């Protein structure tokens, strides 16, 4: 008789960026990630994506933690702060550089905007690859001269090295394979001029380091999952299963955003909203007035 297969211990996470306060959509997402873990006796982790030194604010970190606790979101273990993991990101960049898959990019935002022929991918303009063509000499000279640069992945080369890729999508009932096409994003940035790693690199490395088995996040991140799957393949990292939930929209049909002062958890708390009623409403898909589901 074959021994029974031990069920996988589920690990989920919520991973806010402290660039503003959380809105009700974030609260809903965090509750779903926690409930998913709790439904199988699993683990829920919290990660603060504070890698962006120019936009992250310590007061938002404390605010976010307060808002989550108020809403009844509980996590296990220590909070992971990306700002404390710079060395890990640098080591991964070194590995990718040693594989010949990264190149320095000196282009400014304006340079990229000016390249009118740039095709568009799911995340906007695709980098036209200008700096991919620079010689090793020019690269070395410009780096030695202190020219500001990002590091981009040579997508064609990386995709060829990784071969065909799938990621696992899960819902309440089943999981299925989704074929990944990272190439549509072009040569994305893995280390920014102003931050030691891009979201794609740090998020992928951290999900693996935290043992995350199930990623539940907004539908706006569905297409970049292909990039994350590529990084997993290149760096021999395990690949979690993913579910992308619909985004919440305001009365004008716009996505809720931290910047636009969309209904924040902090505002609701100040207004004296009962957080246990709010949490029950969000779980039941009843959102505050003027907020509704976006596309699935
Ligand atoms: N930090 C990202 C955000 O706040 C979410 C990252 C993720 O869930 O993968 O949008």
UniProtKB/TrEMBL annotation:
Pfam family for this entry, one: tRNA-synt_1c
Could you tell me the Gene Ontology terms of the biological process aspect for this record? glutamyl-tRNA aminoacylation
Q: Which family does it belong to?
A: Belongs to the class-I aminoacyl-tRNA synthetase family.
Asked if Transcription is a keyword of the record, the answer is: no
UniProt entry keywords in alphabetical sequence: Aminoacyl-tRNA synthetase, ATP-binding, Ligase, Metal-binding, Nucleotide-binding, Protein biosynthesis, Zinc
UniProt protein name: Glutamyl-tRNA synthetase
MF (Gene Ontology): ATP binding; glutamate-tRNA ligase activity
Q: Which residues cross the membrane?
A: none
Keyword Metal-binding listed: yes
Q: Which organism is it from?
A: Sphingobium lactosutens DS20
Q: Provide one Gene Ontology cellular component.
A: cytosol
InterPro entries according to UniProt:
aa-tRNA-synth_I_CS, Glu/Gln-tRNA-synth, Glu/Gln-tRNA-synth_Ib_cat-dom, GluQ/Sye, Rossmann-like_a/b/a_fold
UniProt cross-references to SUPFAM superfamilies, sorted A to Z: Nucleotidylyl transferase (SSF52374)
């Amino acid at each position: 008789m074959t021994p029974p297969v031990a069920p996988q211990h589920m690990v989920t996470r919520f991973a806010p960026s402290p660039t503003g306060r959380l809105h009700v959509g974030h609260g809903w997402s965090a509750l779903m990630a926690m409930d998913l873990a709790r439904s199988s006796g699993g683990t829920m982790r919290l990660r603060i994506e504070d890698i962006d030194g120019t936009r992250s604010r310590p007061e938002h970190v404390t605010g976010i933690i307060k808002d989550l606790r108020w809403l009844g979101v509980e996590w296990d273990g220590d909070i992971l702060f990306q700002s404390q993991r710079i060395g890990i990101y640098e080591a991964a960049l070194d590995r990718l550089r040693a594989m010949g898959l990264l190149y320095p990019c000196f282009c400014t935002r304006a340079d990229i905007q000016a390249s009118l022929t740039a095709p568009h991918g799911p995340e906007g303009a695709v980098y036209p690859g200008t700096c991919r063509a620079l010689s090793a000499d020019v690269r070395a000279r410009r780096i030695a001269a202190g020219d500001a640069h990002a590091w981009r992945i040579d997508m064609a080369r990386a995709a060829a090295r990784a071969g065909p890729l799938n990621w696992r999508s899960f819902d309440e009932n089943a999981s299925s394979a989704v074929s990944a096409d990272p190439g549509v994003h072009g040569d994305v940035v893995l280390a920014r001029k102003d931050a030691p790693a891009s979201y794609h690199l740090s998020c992928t490395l951290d999900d693996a380091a935290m043992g995350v088995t199930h990623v539940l996040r907004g539908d706006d991140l569905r297409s970049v999952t292909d990039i994350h799957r590529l990084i997993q393949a290149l760096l021999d990292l395990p690949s979690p299963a993913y579910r992308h939930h619909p985004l919440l929209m305001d009365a004008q049909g716009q996505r809720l955003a931290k910047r636009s002062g969309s209904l924040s958890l902090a505002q609701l708390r100040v207004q004296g909203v009962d957080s246990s009623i709010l949490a029950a409403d969000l779980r039941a898909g009843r959102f505050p007035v003027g907020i509704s589901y976006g596309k699935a």
